Amino acid sequence: MEYVTLNNGVKMPAVGFGVFQIPDPVVCQEVVETAIKTGYRLIDTAEAYGNEEAVGRAIKAASVPREELFITTKVFIQHMSYEGAKTAFAASLAKLDLDYIDLYLLHQPVGDTFGAWRALEELYKEGKIKAIGVSNFKSDHLANLSLFNEIIPAVNQIEVHVFNQKEDEQAYMVEKGIQIESWGAFAEGQFDVFNNPVLKEIAAKYDKTTAQVMLRWQLQRGIVSLSKSANSDRVRQNFDIFDFALTEADMSKIAELNTDTTVFADHSQAKTVELLASFVGKTF
Question: From which residue to which does the signal peptide run (predicted)?
Answer without folding.
Answer: none
